[in-house]
Each structure stands twice: as structure tokens, then as C-alpha cells.
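ligand=NAP
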Amino acid sequence: MADKKPILIDGKQIAKDIKEEIKKEVAEILDHGQRPPHLVAILVGDDGASLSYVSSKEKQSQEVGFTSSVYRFPESISEQELLETIDFLNRDNEVDGYIVQMPLPQHIDARKIVDKIDPKKDVDGFHPVNVGRMVLSLPSYIPATPYGIVTLIERSGIETEGKNCVVIGRSDIVGTPVALLMSRKGEHRNCTVTLCHSKTQNIKELCLQADIIVVAIGKPEFLKADMVKEGAVVIDVGIHRIKDNSEKGYHITGDVDFENVSKKCSYITPVPGGVGPMTIVSLLTNTLSAYKHEFYQE
Ligand code: NAP
């Protein structure tokens, strides 16, 4: 195994394939004289990362044939005004799904905002109704990054049944849903899952038992080669911009020491080009499901 090259999980290509599938479906919808799916993003303030994320969502929505719009608000918007906007979007029959870009300013209670979203339009899958449905294995919107991760595993044909899966990081938007999904019954699931966090005592020992490791902790190159058994599958969720002396002045790295860990893996996601491209495409998939009322009746 040591000299064998790992299979790189090509998130870019898988995301492109899924976008093509969505585009085809939207073209058929238009051929039938129906309106296209419509995705809205609410953006508060001018945080650079949020701006670029929302503009990518807008661009990619349009690439697959959706209509999309962005509701931009200044940092000073009140919680009440934002709640009223959400109420308006909940009632607008031309809006299939919408997201509220996080983080929100300190004076706004993000929980209150998310709770106000109509679960039928909650394509980020953060509303408690959708989280509850996911826990119960009922059809629901799965948060975009975890959805992207399980789709990568599925589409790469990685065997999961009965495998030990260690997830490092327990955030509500990545680690916890990934751990839950991998432990559910069903094809490409059925793992025995261990969810690690900052209080876990023996991460190295647990990782050494793992057939699949998903790392989402936000610490550059945290997972080292001596924590990984030969032939393991490693999914790296982290994204970090590290300053260097290159022309660009930085390079991108993940939560995994890719250079050394990859030598031991059967499959591994690169950063960039692994999990990252799957996130927006999963949001598009959720929006198409919302348009088709796949999970909720009218
Ligand atoms: P987060 O909310 O900061 O959560 C980090 C988790 O890691 C927490 O559960 C924390 O434990 C745990 N942790 C921190 N240090 C640890 C340690 N030394 N040992 C074990 N566990 C530790 O992060 P997140 O939002 O899930 O994001 C994680 C990474 O994924 C970040 O790099 C982020 O940029 C990236 N990300 C990428 C995408 C994408 O599209 N590719 C999407 C979302 C996030 P506690 O709970 O005990 O504090």
C-alpha cells in the first residue's frame, strides 16, 4: 500500500457533473413552459468572505438556469426588519428557496432568524424542522457541506457499510450532520461513527482505528500521517489561506497534512478542489428539490 498512489477524490469534476444534471433538468422544466427555480440569498453587511460566497452562489445558480437574487442590507439593519424580509420571502410564491448568509451582526439573534424561515424554503437545512427530519431519516434539506461530503463518498463508490468512521469536529453545520448521516441506515451509510471534538482525549488512537476520517476542525494540517492507518479514506473539510513567499503571497491548505497523509490513503480529497466545490452544488440540488416540492406537500 505504501507505494500505491491514493485516488484523489475530484470534487471539481463531481460538482461539474451534478451541475450538468441540474442544468438538464431545468432545461426540461423550461421546455414545458414552466418558470425556472428561484434561489434568493440574504446578505447583511460587507464581510469579504460572505460577499464572495454569495456572488458564487448567484453565478452558479444562473449557470444551471435558475433565477437568483440577492437581498443586500447594511450592517445596521434591525432584527425586526430582517424578520419582516423573511416573512415576505416565506409568502412569495415565486421564491422556492432562500438562504441567510452567516455570520449576522452581533445585534441580530441568528437563531431567531433561522427559526423564522419556512422549513419548505430552508435550502440551507438549518431550520430545526429540517434538522429533526434529518435525524429521523425523513426526506429533508441536508446542510450543503455535509451533503457535499456524503455525495463525494457516494459518487466515488467508497464502501461504507460496517466501516469505522471518525469525524473530527462537531459543529452544527459540518461535523455533527456528517457524523449523523454516516451512521444512518442505507446505501453509502451504515458506518460505526465516532465524533471527536476539542475535549476528546485520544484522537490519535481513535483515528488509527478508522477506515474513513472526516476532518472539520479549522486547524491547518492537524491530521498527520502517524494518525492514519494504511488504506484509510480521508475527507478534508478545512480551508486555510496560508501566507507564503509565492507570487500570489499565499497558498490554500486544509485540516490535513496532505503531502504525508496522502501516502497512506486509499482515497483523499485535495484542498482546494475536494469538498469546497461540492458545497454550492449541494445548495443548488436542495433548491431544485424545493422547486419540485420533493420533501413537503403544499
Ligand atoms: P467550527 O464551528 O469552528 O468547529 C470546529 C470543531 O472542531 C469544533 O467542534 C471543535 O470542538 C473542534 N476542534 C477544534 N480544535 C480541536 C482539536 N484540537 N481537536 C479536536 N477537535 C477540535 O468549524 P466548522 O464551521 O465546522 O469548520 C471547520 C473547517 O471547515 C474550517 O476550516 C472551515 O473553514 C471549513 N469549512 C469548509 C467548508 C467548505 O465548503 N469546504 C464549509 C464549512 C466549513 P468543540 O466543539 O469542542 O469546540
